[in-house]
Specification:
Two copies of one chain form a homodimer. Chain A is of the alpha+beta class and about 325 residues long. Chain A is built from ten helices and 13 strands. Strand 3 of chain A pairs antiparallel with strand 2 (about 35) of chain B.
């Protein structure tokens, strides 16, 4: 197996670039000092960056190299979806050990590129650095958005509905099931949807763009730390609280079955640390139908979980009418 | 001393952001899912990324945290200068150990931000990830360039002059002197210019932009691997060779003195691996005066080293008329 140490940096870059497919809007692509891109007239530029570190964001062997690349793309695509931007160009910076096979690098790059291409974006630049410790990948994704359709975390108002795409907590559940059973088991098991939520998260880019065109959203954030934590971020930025109703919570029998099997409380996955790369939205009550319709058209599951309040607290209302404040604990790298 | 582990990811980010100064063209700055930027109508977008890894690109203690941040900015600014782009917006992705003091992070960020601000750019986004091994920083820098003024490595023609800014090899010389004498000695010594070339490289952004406006350049590349290696990249892309004249080589008595003291051949620094972040330019003979004038106006040292040839070789012509082919060896991470 050919390793990076065998062929060196420049030949490795050539082999990675050989598998790339040119994307639109690129005047000067990879291989020069900088990429030169053709932005769309009248649009704003949106930019985000997210990184995965070996042993921190992923355990070697839990994901294939293609999946690892695609998941890093999803993390960044989700950030652009949360501001209703259209992904266009990516730059990938990697720290790699000299003994890593070149095929591994090519697969990670292909996974990234394929996931970006599915949403109209391409890789236009990058950097390859040697590391002696854990490997890492850092993607910067550049997109475009219409000036009058940009979503931020700020703007939710008391009375706004809170909606979430997908099934929060599935990524955490999927990771727990892979850890317990190994990824070899994932493909053919009843918990495949959980495995996929972790290994190949959907990116809500097209849904976000369609919904932004209807001006239905007051504020948005992506769920990458955990639902309670990210809902807390949105509430803090918008200076509102949220009241959520257990009765409106999305049914997720697969996750409940996994929780039973693992002996954990399913709400720990649903509320706690889980990087689902789903969207949390605050929308005025009159926009409900537009949001539901846009979700249906995009094939995106969407649930209205509750509503914003004036009190700056996160309150959970049980089926029995009981009320309790939610902990905002999400994933924090350093604590 | 407060460490990251003491305050956690979100408080750390707040403290870093508190020291930032907002830059121009930013509709949504740091702290949201993505930054939203206002590009200049009619301009193209240029983007590059470069990373530093602890123990690979820098040894802890050789640079202050401010210098480390500024040097990473310089690496990226140089890439944009090499395509004659105007730097505008940066995104910084960092891998940091939990025991690192927050003051260290704030200083690195300030070093980055100050160096970018000196050339009109600001930090608009980032990511903070935990590492257990060596730390790393990866910057993506976004700029703008006029469609008819973009430089690439491709376009040098036989007969073009080859010019270089600054004094190639000084960064390698400075690093060698810091390694031998410690950085404490650098400030007040005769080799301060070498120390500065390594610790605080000039960015040739304004010179590049002024020169691009005169349409004087056929091809450009920045010197980040070493002069012979990067000249080789430019020649390969343009399908030309180069003949360089020893008699035209810039006098650099400080570097020669350091080479004598260290017992090395000064040409090893000048030609070999050295990340000077200077510019190599190929320009038509009739543009010589324009280039010299632009360099004078920008206060940028500029030397014409030789000329492009049809044969695709790098030839060194000694003062005595002797000819030899230059090795293209530059810095390769993995070999």
């Amino acid at each position: 197996m050919t390793r990076l140490a065998d062929i060196g940096e420049f030949e490795a870059i050539q082999r990675i670039l050989a598998s790339r497919v040119p994307g639109p809007g690129v005047a000067v692509g990879p291989g020069d000092d900088a990429a030169v891109l053709r932005p769309t007239e009248g649009m704003r530029v949106a930019a985000t960056t997210d990184a995965f570190v070996e042993g921190v964001h992923y355990r070697p062997g839990d994901l294939t190299d293609l999946e690892l690349g695609a998941r890093l793309a999803a993390a960044n695509l989700s950030d652009l979806a949360a501001c209703a931007a259209t992904p266009r160009w990516g730059l990938i910076s990697m720290g790699v050990r000299a003994e890593t096979p070149i095929a591994t690098l090519v697969d990670r790059d292909r996974g990234l590129a394929q996931a970006l291409r599915a949403h109209g974006a391409s890789l236009v630049g990058g950097n390859l650095a040697k590391v002696q410790g854990p490997e890492w990948m850092s993607l910067t994704l550049i997109g475009e958005c219409a000036p009058d359709r940009v979503w931020t975390r700020l703007g939710a108002r008391p009375g706004d509905l809170i909606a979430v795409t997908g099934y929060p907590g599935r990524a955490a559940a999927g990771l727990a099931m892979i850890t317990a059973n190994g990824r070899a088991a994932a493909g053919a098991e009843w918990w495949t949807p959980l495995y996929l939520a972790y290994a190949a998260p959907a990116s809500r880019v097209e849904f976000a763009r369609a919904l932004a065109a209807t001006h239905a959203v007051h504020a948005a954030i992506d769920v990458s730390d955990g639902l309670a934590a990210d809902l807390g971020h949105l509430c803090d930025a918008s200076e509102v609280g949220v009241e959520l109703r257990e009765a409106d919570w999305p049914d997720d029998p697969v996750m409940v079955r996994a929780a039973t099997e693992r002996g954990v409380d399913a709400t720990r996955w649903a509320w706690g640390p889980s990087d689902d790369y789903e969207l949390l939205l605050a929308l005025p009550a009159e926009a409900r139908e537009r949001a539901v319709e846009a979700a249906r058209a995009a094939g995106t599951p969407l649930t209205i979980l509750g509503a914003c309040t004036q009190l700056e607290t996160l309150v959970w209302v049980g089926r029995d009418g009981s009320r309790r404040e939610l902990p905002r604990a999400g994933y924090d790298h350093f604590r």
